[in-house]
Amino acid sequence: MAHLLASNPNASHKLICSNLGHGVRTGSKSECYIVGGKSRSGGSGLVLQCSSSTRSSQLPCADQDIRLQIENGSSGKLKQQFEYLVCEYGWRVRRLFENADEIRKASQVQAEAFHVPVSLFNDLFFQFFQAEVLSGLLYKLKNSPPNRYACLVAEPAENDPDSPKQLVGVIDVTVLRDQNVLQHLPPEAEEYLYISGIAVSKTFRRRKIATALLKACDMLSILWGFEFLALRAYEEDLGARKLYANAGYRVVSRDPPWTSHWIGKKCRVLMIKRTSLPE
């Protein structure tokens, strides 16, 4: 299971990724892994357990079980948030910081990934498209509850803390209840996590960033207590479909023929993944 880095700004406890080497003495090994899921009170929660090859109390979480309870406050804000959801393949994935510079960087990564070049005035069209992507991201961040929408970003694990953060990948996660998806889920499933907007910087592609982003979505589904994740991919995009299939997603339906036979309209497939929520 992916290593996690979690922090609570209101507490002294901190969970450290062993493969990042922060806060761990030379020669010692510390790991953090999920051992529980939903809270007994019925809210979404998570138990993380830390293990260490040493018994030193100076390790950040030696011989401790730290229960991180994710609950809604009266303001609708999460009481605690995880800093890094996944640390794998040389990349770390976390939630987007809501500052202007980082939001702009995330929208630029998505705009570059999804912009379709045109023969005339391509630069001008790209500027309009990037502005539209930025506007959409700002709207979602401003109007979505923090436990209903998240923009996750990937950055190098060896990022210099004194230099500006380099965002190399972006993915959107939204809680939805579309009947077109729910009909493929068990009757007791009322909502699911919908994955969209996955984008990787052109100079960093084919380096497992997308895989790390999808694993972070798995971690978020456990944190939020959702059993199913769904996404859509173009049927002819075999590369993307292979990526999702390797991540555990399976095709359950395709767009109806009458919606995909228009000129320029591509057929999409709906892919669903079931996560194993700890008891």
UniProtKB/TrEMBL annotation:
BP-aspect Gene Ontology terms: mitotic sister chromatid cohesion
CDD domains: NAT_SF (cd04301)
Protein name in the entry: N-acetyltransferase domain-containing protein
Top-rank lineage group of the source organism: Eukaryota
Organism listed in the record: Cajanus cajan (Pigeon pea)
InterPro entries linked to this entry: Acyl_CoA_acyltransferase, GNAT_dom, N-term/lysine_N-AcTrnsfr
Family matches, as Gene3D superfamilies: 3.40.630.30
An example molecular function term from Gene Ontology annotations: N-acetyltransferase activity
Domain N-acetyltransferase: 101-276
A GO cellular component entry from the record: NatA complex
